[in-house]
Structures are given as C-alpha cells and as structure tokens.
Amino acid sequence: MSSPFDHPVRREHTCSVKFDARKAVFGTEDVIPVWVADMDFAAPEAVTQALAERAKHPVYGYTLFPDSLYQSMIDWFASRHAWEIQREWILMAPGVVPSINAACMAYAGPGEGVIIQPPVYPPFFSSVRHSGRVVIENPLVPEDPDTGDTGHYRMDLDHLEQCAARPDARILLLCSPHNPVGRVWSEEELGAVLDIARRHQLVVVSDEIHCDLTFPDKPRHTMLANLAGPDDALVTAVAPSKSFNMPGLGLSALVIPDADRRKAMKTVFESMHLPQCNPFSIAGFEAGYRHGGPWLDDLMVYLQANRDYVVEAVGQRLPGIRVSAPEGTYLMWLDCRELGLDDAGLKRFFVRQAGVGMNPGISFGDPGSGFMRLNIGCPRSVLEEVVGRIEAAL
C-alpha cells in the first residue's frame, strides 16, 4: 500500500543545503544526498496552511511571541512526554545550535571545560571552541566490545565521573536521543548522569531536539527533566524542527526552571540581539505542536520500515559494512572499517565510486573514524537506489 511519504518532493533549485550544496561539499552534483539532517518529506499540511495564512497578511514586521505559542508547546510535552512545563520556564531561542553556543558563554568562563560525548553532532565541538571554552571528551563506548557490536553504544559513566571531577569542568552537553549513534538513553543512564552532575556541580545542557523521533518498537524517550529535582542545574533544548521537518524556520525553545540560569542565558542572547521573532517561524512552530501529531505518528511507522530495510540490505548485500538499528532519530551509523580505507579514502569511495553523499563519521570526532552517517528520512525508492549504488561499487 502506497504511503504519502513514498512520493518524492523535488528539492533541487530551492536553495536547499542538502541538494544545492552538493557541488561545494562533495565536488560533484552526481551524488544522492543522504547527509544533512532534514527529511525529503513535505511538512504536515497544517504547518503549510499556517504559513500560507500568515503570508496573506501583507505586513511582516517585528513580531511578539503570542501566548498561544507557549501553550502549544506546553500541551505537546504534557501529552507526548508527561512533562509539565511552567510558562515562565520557557525562553524562546533562535535554534538549538545558537543555544548551545550561548550556554557555553552563560555557564562557563573562558578557558573552562565543557564535557561532550563523541561521536557527537559536530556543533558540540565548535560551540565550545568558538566560545573560548575547552572541550573535555567523554567518548561513548560499544555496548559489548567483545562481540564487536559497534552499532550500539553506552556511556562510560566511570570516565564521565573523572571528567566531571576536573576543577575546570562546568557544563555537560548531553545529546538525547543521541546524534549520530541513535541511542535513546535509559532512565538508569540518565539518572546516573544527574547524580554525577549533582556531585560536581555541573550544568547539564540537554539537547533533546530528536525527542519525538523514537521508533514504535524501541524504548520511549525519557525527558531528563522528568527525572531531575528542583535544585538540579538543567537546561533543556527542544524544537519542532526535526519532528515536523521544518528546521529552516529556525525557532526553538529552552526550558530553564531556575530564574538565575534563565536570566544568564537571556543576557547572552540580548548581547547578540537575539532572537529576532520571525512571524513565519512562530506560525510553523505553533501549528506543528498543535496539529502535527498524526503526521508524526505515520512518519515514524514509515521511518521504521526504512530503518529495517537498511539493516537487512546492509547485512545481506554490503560486505564490509555493518549497521545496527537505531532506537531514535532518522539517522543510521554505518560501520565501514572493514573496508580498510582511511577517512579520506572512505569519503572518496562513496562519492566517486558509489555516487552517494553521506556525512563522514570523522566529522563527529575521532571515535567516528571509519563510520558514515546515513539519513533515512527519504522515500524508500531513494534508499533502494543508495543501496544499489553502494553494492555495485563494492
């Protein structure tokens, strides 16, 4: 039975980074782009309608954040995640990446340490370094190194304790669910993180932008805030951008229960004259959280089928490559180390011989060496072509 997600949406010549930057990134336009973390699906119709309705008003001036915007977010997280957010905790933000940058400046001084857990989303590194703070790496480890199952990771909590005990450590940047390895952290793991943060007075900045993107057959996401106490130093970053495929609209939110920490973040934003309220971002944000639920549920069923197809196809048709089913996100972490290529050679192989454009694992930190990140947020026919090209190249 055909799905609406089976029908391709042409994205070339729309100034799409994913499609129209192929020449700049890969040196050729002759690659299937399965890299940037947005999906090739039309956003929920309610989002498109809300944007069109706002466009009918011919003045696009400076705009306030309406109460209805906050309420849509509060209602969504209460319903979907059993998380009760108070209105005054919410600080609107111009995206999760700017928020991570701002958090480094708000909660750590120049030269102080910020803990990250590679392989991890590249802006975790750049946000720390560009703000003049110091990266402290707490690498993830395979769940069972003895069996070679490198697709399923766990936190090294003993090493995290050592990192947190450093006199310069101030912040832990947590990626939950994790990009790129696809882990949905368990309550036990998250509780241990909170315990370590309490003992060493760390501010935990929890990037939970993928919180809605967990598969029906895997554990549900637990908001770290649901395990935290009132005295925990916690900043939660969320957005509808990944959930409803509208990252270009740019609007996100921070939930910061503590008034002083909220003020510190607001001060950083104001020092850069951020955020500037975009009327279209506001319309899309509210429409997604108010009306996007059924679309999201259908999406996750489709993505699960895509995920299972890739796992089976890699296992049966792509010798030298291994992959495990992620628990969340629409990203898959391909272990290509058995191909015997260095990272530059690996990228050349996929681009020049297979004609497939993915994110090199090394861009997620040294533990990503030998891996590639595949975006499965696309029609099945695209993934079939990707697998076919890689199989032919191998």
From TrEMBL:
The keyword Methyltransferase does not apply. This is cysteine-S-conjugate beta-lyase. Coiled coil: none annotated. Keywords: Aminotransferase, Lyase, Pyridoxal phosphate, Transferase. It comes from the Bacteria. Residues 36-390 form the Aminotransferase class I/classII large domain. The keyword Lyase applies. Its cofactor is pyridoxal 5'-phosphate. Its EC number is 4.4.1.13. It holds the Pfam family Aminotran_1_2. InterPro entries: Aminotransferase_I/II_large, C-S_lyase_PatB-like, Class-II_PLP-Dep_Aminotrans, PyrdxlP-dep_Trfase, PyrdxlP-dep_Trfase_major, PyrdxlP-dep_Trfase_small. SUPFAM superfamilies: PLP-dependent transferases. Belongs to the class-II pyridoxal-phosphate-dependent aminotransferase family. MalY/PatB cystathionine beta-lyase subfamily. GO terms for molecular function: cysteine-S-conjugate beta-lyase activity; pyridoxal phosphate binding; transaminase activity.
